[in-house]
Amino acid sequence: MSFFPAKLTYRSDINGLRAWAVLSVVLFHFLVPGFAGGFAGVDIFFVISGYLMTGIIVSGLHDRQFGFGRFMLARAVRILPALIVLILVLLVMGWFLLPTPDYQALAGQGRYALIFWSNVDFAASAGYFSAQAHETWLLHTWSLSVEWQFYLLFPLLLMAVSKLFSPRLGVLFGTVLGLFVLSLAYNFYISLADPVAAFYLLPGRAWEMCAGGLVYFIANSTFGERLQCQGLRNRVMQWAGWAMLAITFVLLDDAVIWPGAWALLPVVGTMLVLLAYNEKSVLITGRWAQWLGDRSYSIYLWHWPVAVLLFFADLLEHTGWVVTGIALSILFGALSYSWVEEPTRRAFKHKTVRTKFTTVVTGFAVCAVCVMVVREVEFAERLDSDVEIIAAEAFNRNPLHEQCSHSRSDMVEECRYGGDELGVLVFGDSHAASVVRSVEAALPSEFLHARDLSMTACPVAEGIQHAQRPGHRFLCPEFVDSVLERSDDWPADVPLLIVNRASHYVHSDTDDGTAEYFVSEQPLPVDDASHQQSITNAMMQTACEIAQDRPVYWLTPIPEMPVDVPQYMSRTQLFVGQASRVSQSLQDYESAHAAVLAAQAEAQSCGVEILDVRPYLCSDGTCWGDSDGLPIYFDEQHLNERGGALLQPLFREMFSAS
Predict the structure, then answer these.
(1) Could you write out the DSSP letters of every residue in 533-556?
(2) 78-129 pLDDT, tens per residue?
(3) What is the C-alpha to C-alpha distance for residues 32 and 28, in angstroms, rounded to an integer?
(4) What is the pTM of this model?
(5) What are the start-end ranges of the H helices in 63-168?
(6) How many other CB atoms are there within 10 angstroms of residue 606's CB atom?
(7) How far apart are CA 169 and CA 116, in angstroms?
(8) Which domains does the chain possess?
């Protein structure tokens, strides 16, 4: 198969594909039935982008006229203006609508979106399909970051190959094919091992853009010419491609592992439609399709913030508001296209490279300054005081948490709260870190201190193992062992308090249903009774082992709320005029923590004392997320300082007993 270089020209079929891609994403995000797999519209965009970028780079390298700086500047001119305007408009809107924690979070997202690093930031947090995703204003910019990173690295790779070997098209085709195979194989692996990283990060996504690059080479080859000349086969290829896209949109949903093997469906479908090169298809010839395709980038930018706004106002399940939200997304996208994209394109058409660069950098700098100011400054009296007072409870937490929550097993001596003499050891995870200052406040003497022995996401259980993310070392076993080894160094009359999110470790699972935490040789299914028994036994035995040397107290699980308490209460105060309370029924609490409560009851036989939080955090059959109208959590599961203070009488009883 021989190749020939070809300059890219406008193709209405590509514009029609863009229309369907953005439409599917919009309908998916607004929860419209029939588009449960609409998230795959982003995969279509990736393939199209790979096709176009490969054409620009390869034809330039072949003609020895490709300039990396000019290429990246062209991408910046195309992407940044509309993105900058979006971020600035959201910052203005947020001034009037967002409590301080949400407003500063928006600015933080804007910072990463501007430098095209948001996909890396989001990969370290909740998954794309999680409930928390609807609280993230600029979540959708992850795809822009992936594309930008591809734009940055892909031409450098092809330039290096061209320099080291030759700019022959066969060599460049082999390079793109090799990258496609490597990234696809990695995608199959990482989608099972770490689905969040697979979704957000470039290594697991590069194959989709390389797929578009392969289309460019195939289309501009003798084989591609023959394909396009054979009418029947061409039509079969085209309709097969559209059928694969339709199946993706309608039959898949967010329960599938993505972008694993299932992502081949929309990617191959898009490749077939591009190869068919049929600009007369009824699916894309309509004026509506071309109109949407022209505005697809701006519609994509604006639709997600509209969906988030409806989510904040609890309107995303109301049909009328969903229709309004979709209409507003298209309207704002059209305005962005007419007022930002097109004027920018026309204004820059005959400008020098220097002028383009200066203009883009200036716009970037202005937006970056605005983002940093909002990120770092708390503006007083911006919203109603009731809203801000409620929202501020998200910051009412242990100020030394980041410094004192251990990440290495050699840090167990570093954090203490109170006087010079050791009064209590607080051993556990982030739940322990959230109450340690309340334990300190309950100490019987100001000369005593509470020692913070906490590690985030670490169960107090010897032999605990974790289904680790690739490249991440699970340090919890070493940390637990180090605390147990040093126990003899501390006075035997000093009590030790265990505080853990214990039920999470019992019931947390991976995407394939196996346990995330385990003490067996291999992970068992998370709903396997023997798995749950082994975890609770390990916790109980560890507590009993410590109790041989000193008084041990074990706090019952902290009730977990269904939503982020300060966020939900402050938003309802803002949008509804009255803060809605958040709660968990006592029956649900006892059901969720039954296995751990049973283990704690059994641990009393070896001398472990159980401290029950229910009389202090629950009343009338309900565990509340607030007290006197103010949140007692700083998120959905961690007590803030106000919540911890409610437990001080319980901790005083512990010291009285000791």
Answers:
(1) HHHHHHHHHHHHHHHTTS-EEEEP
(2) 999 999 999 999 999 999 988 888 899 999 999 999 999 999 999 887 777 7
(3) 6
(4) 0.86
(5) 68-97, 100-114, 118-123, 142-164
(6) 15
(7) 30
(8) 12-376 (no CATH), 401-558+585-617 (3.40.50)
